[in-house]
Design a protein that fits this description.
May be a cell surface adhesion protein. It is built from seven helices and seven strands. The protein is of the alpha+beta class.
Length: 228
């Protein structure tokens, strides 16, 4: 609807660039708080994503014209905006505070401590009860808006979180400490504490020695008998 109003050309281009225009066209009841070309300096330096959040705040999800705003009950109201519907707003960032201050309509962020820094200038165009475009004097930027697009650094595990080596996994030092048997030794050989082997050769030697002793004794007996 702003294509035919050159004073809002930059604002209209931003709505298209951030694809907010598509969201506006998809809704049946809406109010756009437009800012003219000369008062958009507050958006300078912000990324496209941040500009989108700020501009979302300028799209109210209800129909308001000058008459309705001047008849606000209790002289003040909380307005829900497109920013709130995105799920990106924190706390009251997605709401606007509108106040009828003695006949002067003023807007501001609903975040606690924010001021009413934008005044209603007048109506730009409207389709009653469907869409209304109102001019406001300044861009409204909510307090606490995250203007950083840098992703958080990846978490580096602390030394205490590092996995410990398994006790069942042998280390190279354990392998190197096991000595191999000498190449010439037999694996089946008797140990030092084992019983002595009954060697046949050893047994024959013992029997031969005993026989010689008996023969000598018999010879001495016979020699003594003959001598007497």
């Amino acid at each position: 609807m702003l294509n035919q109003y050159s004073d809002y050309g930059t604002f209209n281009d931003l709505l298209s660039k951030t694809r907010i225009a598509e969201a506006i066209n998809s809704r049946r009841t809406i109010t756009v708080l437009a800012v003219d070309n000369g008062n958009l300096g507050a958006l300078t330096g912000y990324s496209t994503d941040v500009q989108k959040h700020i501009l979302d705040l300028h799209v109210v999800l209800d129909y308001y014209d000058e008459t309705k705003l001047k008849n606000i009950k209790k002289k003040s109201a909380l307005l829900t905006t497109l920013y709130q519907s995105t799920g990106s707003a924190r706390g009251q960032q997605g709401f606007l505070n509108v106040t009828n201050d003695g006949g002067s309509i003023r807007f501001g962020s609903a975040v606690k401590g924010s001021g009413l820094n934008a005044n209603l200038v007048g109506s730009v165009t409207s389709q009653p009860y469907n869409i209304s475009v109102l001019q406001v004097s300044n861009i409204i930027i909510p307090q606490g808006l995250d203007t950083s697009n840098t992703p958080p650094p990846a978490k580096t595990p602390s030394p205490s979180e590092a996995p410990e080596p398994s006790a069942e996994t042998p280390t190279p030092e354990a392998h190197s400490s096991v000595s191999s048997p000498p190449a010439g030794d037999s694996a089946d050989g008797p140990s030092a504490d084992g019983p002595a082997a009954d060697s046949p050769q050893g047994g024959a030697t013992a029997i031969g020695g005993a026989g010689n002793c008996i023969f000598a004794v018999i010879f001495m007996v016979l020699f003594s008998a003959w001598a007497s």
